[in-house]
Write the structure tokens for this entry.
Amino acid sequence: MSEVVALTHATLIDGTGEPPVADATVVMADGVISATGSADRVAIPAGADVVDCSGAFVIPGLMDANIHLVSSRTPDTLLDFEGRYEELAFEAAEMALKYGLTTVFDTWGPAAPLVKARDAINAGERTGARFFCAGNIFGLNGPMSEDFFKTGDTFEPETKKRINDVWEIGCGTNLISLSADDIAGALDKYIDATGVDFIKYAASDHRTEGFLLFSETAQRKIVDVCHARGLLVQAHTTTVESLRMEIEAGNDLLQHPDITATTPIPGELMDQIVERQLPCMALFVTERYLEWLSTAKPEAAAARLVSDQNNRAFIANGARVLLTTDAFAYGQRVKNHRGFRPGLLEDSVPDMPTQIGRGHFLWIQAAWERGMEPMEVLRSASSYIAEAYGKDDVLGTVTPGKAADMVILNADPLAAPENYGNIRDVVKGGVVVDRTKLGATTLLADDPGEYR
């Protein structure tokens, strides 16, 4: 017999853009929403478990379009957890779910451990945010490389290669010396070898120089392979030119298009993004963080201020923006490492934008500060992400036929951004999550605590 649950007397904000429904009822059975609407229009099935949500607000489960579940990539932790990186993914997925992220999209990490963790969570063997993953950034080397962590001569070459191979699977920077056809063939093999959900490739480097990696011909080949295999594709870009190439190649989503070094996005390129409604995974940060960065890290502030200019233009021009944090789960052991994001992971940094469990709340606050309409903020954190990743048939809104993923808040999220952190319950797949058990035992991560 199916388990039927009815949430009653809530204010429903379903994520479609429709106005809130007062005194609403949401009925779910076997993890799927079966009926929603005002109490006088929705009948509660006989025998249903009724949950009184008087005074509460029901919204879709929140999402993050760009997260990294295995990213505490200091050399000591990479060695310590070698052979069991999926444990870090489980920890991060738990922390995400605890704070209302019912679905996340992992855009860089070791494919095999991530797929193992993904499948265990999807099968109900472990509790955590539902996630989809890309594995490595196609064309970049692994975490013990110049692309990510400059280990120098500290480790012997074979040790670094062993770790990097878990990420690269033969598809590191060696690809840039191949022909476009051979690059396409390597991508086909990578997809077959990993079972990832989508692809992210490097249109430009990850070493801050902004070098272009793949030619326009090669980028089009990459996109063609992905589309032929039924996979969505996005690119890592860091300059105006790499962003232009990504768009012209036919990418489905734009990964951090706001990052264009010290050159703002030209008007013509911005118009293309808006007209085509290309989903923009933009890294918003709060005013307080920007103010701190300008004083503490002036060398980094100039590029971040250009990014902020781009983000304000996205909102002003009506671009389709997605909540994106680039966040990962970390704790004191990672913060202690002087070689990993020095000065950016210290406790003194205000409004840390890249911590799983906290970053999405800060993104929402930043979007609010930049004048995004409250309903658009909610949709950017839910339905727009589901649409962009092609998951809107089952995720993203509180409507019949969708997975019963919801966050129940004690305060109106359309009234103030901090109300997103006033969580009464998180529901994933029709099950009310016991949040007290999530993150109770940690490996590397700090629990950021309730956000108000």
